Amino acid sequence: MAIRENFTYTDMDLWLNEKRVTEIECLVPDLTGVARGKILPRAKFTQERGMRIPEAVLGMTVTGNYPTEDAAYDRAISTTDRDMILKADPTTITMVPWATDPTAQVIHDCYFADGRLVDFAPRSVLRRVLKLYADKGWKPVVAPELEFYLTAKNSDPDLPLKPPIGRSGRAETSRQVYSIDAVNEFDPLFEDIYDYCDMMNLDVDTLIHEIGAGQMEINFLHGEPLGLADKVFFFKRTLREAALKHDMYATFMAKPMAGEPGSAMHVHQSVVDIKSGKNIFSAEDGSASPLFKYYIGGLQRYMPSAMAVVAPYVNSYRRIVRHTAAPINVQWGVDNRTVGFRVPESGVQDRRVENRIIGADANPYLALAVTLACGYLGMIDQVEPSPMTTDSAYDLKVELPQGLPEALQKLRAEDKLRNVLGERFIDVYAAIKDLEHQEFMTVISPWEREHLLLHV
């Protein structure tokens, strides 16, 4: 569900007046998932006015730089630095709970001057995939589970992160998976988070302590993908703000601390028939349908080529390591957390598959778009899955790319993903990630100084 289901511009205008909003944060999720945009006084925020920001805002690296020597990027993004037209999506309007004055925030869609959606904008990419499903009479249903770390404040990026101090005055030093008391160490923070999320209609469900020191997981109620992507986008921003209020950091880095597990965004996914409302993954007799098997086959076939989207940074691949609570291959199994694609025990209408490969650092719009794209291609092409894995998949061979350059090479070479996600998106995204890798390679790490400086 959307944050404000079926809200129109008129509804939004009335709601803003009721809340006595004085200013509005007009947001655009960029390819990294960062909130870009402008802040407007309430009086200047009208449907007729619209807003404009440069198209290149969607073509930046996480460091704010632009590819300058990539021909495909230059073909995709105007070299004249033209504007995009932004239009608010009224169903995403919500308050900014941490603001001092009454402030609202609303997500905008990006359009070219001729009225077409900017096809490489993250929300546009997800909409493109959802239309493919709708054209078949299908509606995907997803439920993200988002892991993150709380850490002590760290103003020097050269120093390692540390777990934060809880209300006991001590930091965690041991594994506290599923510990209620360990979560209660940060009760004041989580009370604020739940209050904020309730004010914003984010529909968060359960909170648990994960394996790592200071590592938590929040689960979202299942729903339609665009609305859930909006909620994950808002939640990341909300959690970081709440953590700062309590003198700590919250991070969605895939692997923020050495010796601790990485953070994932596990996504449960199923598909229902729009007319009947039935789960197409289940046959009439209650058994798994052929489409369910083909969906898993599509995930297995295409997810290695989609890895650069669900593991978008150099740091992402530090998480994909054997025996670290993260998958290393595309095996599947029933109630098996060592595989890439887990099928939970469930009823007929709840039959689903959980993609465990996606990192917490992935852009939620793009992550949902690409995992649904893989499943869609599997169903359309009738891709048979491999035999089910019944033992630990950690003992099997690595089947996923082990670094960003390899992942980008696979992404660029996969024509079917290019067709489903959009050619211009692939060209812009790959160019940005290439540049980010080049920027990373200019930095000398502590490991290199420690082991190479005097030994080689």
Automatic annotation (TrEMBL):
MF GO annotations: ATP binding; glutamine synthetase activity
Cofactor requirements of the protein: Mg(2+)
InterPro entries: Gln_synt_N_sf (IPR036651), Gln_synth/guanido_kin_cat_dom (IPR014746), Gln_synth_cat_dom (IPR008146), Gln_synth_gly_rich_site (IPR027303)
Keyword field: ATP-binding, Ligase, Magnesium, Nucleotide-binding
Domain GS catalytic: 122-456
Presence of keyword ATP-binding: yes
Nucleotide-binding keyword on record: yes
Domain of life from the UniProt record: Bacteria
Biological processes annotated in GO: glutamine biosynthetic process; polyamine catabolic process
Cross-referenced Gene3D superfamilies: Glutamine synthetase, N-terminal domain, Glutamine synthetase/guanido kinase, catalytic domain
A matching Pfam family: Gln-synt_C
Family per record: Belongs to the glutamine synthetase family.
Designated name of the protein: Glutamine synthetase
Organism of origin: Duganella callida
